[in-house]
Amino acid sequence: MKFTIKLCLCCAALFSVCGCAAKEPAPLHTPTWDITAHTTAVSTTTITTQSAQATTIRAARKVAIDAGHQARGNNELEPVGPGATESKAKVSSGTQGVSTGVPEYRLTLDVSKKLRDILLSRGYEVFMIRESHDMNISNRERAQLADQAGADILVRVHANGSENPEDNGLMMVAPTPNSPFVPQLYRSSRRLADDILAEMLKITGARDKGVWETDTMSGINWSSIPVVLVEMGYMSNPAEDERMQQAAYQEKLAEGMANGIDRFFE
Ligand SMILES: [Zn+2]
Fold first, then answer.
1. Total structural domains in the chain?
2. CATH number at residue 173
3. Could you tell me the distance, in angstroms and rounded to a whole number, from the CA of residue 159 to the centre of ligand 1?
4. Residue range 23-30: mean pLDDT, rounded
5. Residue 94 C-alpha to ligand 1 middle, in angstroms?
């Protein structure tokens, strides 16, 4: 992961600071689950009731999805957390596929949109931090937007990079128990990370790279709600890079995340 950070910072340094568009959070969506589609002649009442209850529970939950990065990084600095003396770039430009050449910000939004659609179909409310590439939103602002939207959790969607092309698999990033910024979010964020990791591993069959606990991530440190950063795979691994560009695999990544979110709220 140290390699990843270096890589991201290096990439960020290559891009000029971007003016881009003002932040325009997407409007909230209304769930459109058709309960009647799930009913049968035999037990219509029971199934309808159960479905309605499930929808009601989920409808009370709002998930903020942050598709990592944007078309251009922003090298201006911001504190890594509330009260921090250390600063980091507002948002790096991310990594890119070693085989496909696809930039991370495109992959993260593609999968984030799939995750949005699955969550909406299950009755959640969803707040998208961004739905286009030409944005200029810092990691601190992303965390704060999620809070302002009244979200219950923040899921940050990213992909990994490594100097070792053989590195592959799924990794979650969460704060440490001794975080100077969000110690109160440790247990819930760690549980969210564990739940999403377990469900993503189950559906994708990807390698388990575990949960990395760190207090170096601005987008985590500025959060006021349970937060996890999902590293969906290594864009520096040719096979995994190519797999992450397949629509069917992206669907699995999104469904795994949604199943993990379901498990978290159970
Ligand atoms: Zn990233």
1. 1
2. 3.40.630.40
3. 5
4. 35
5. 5
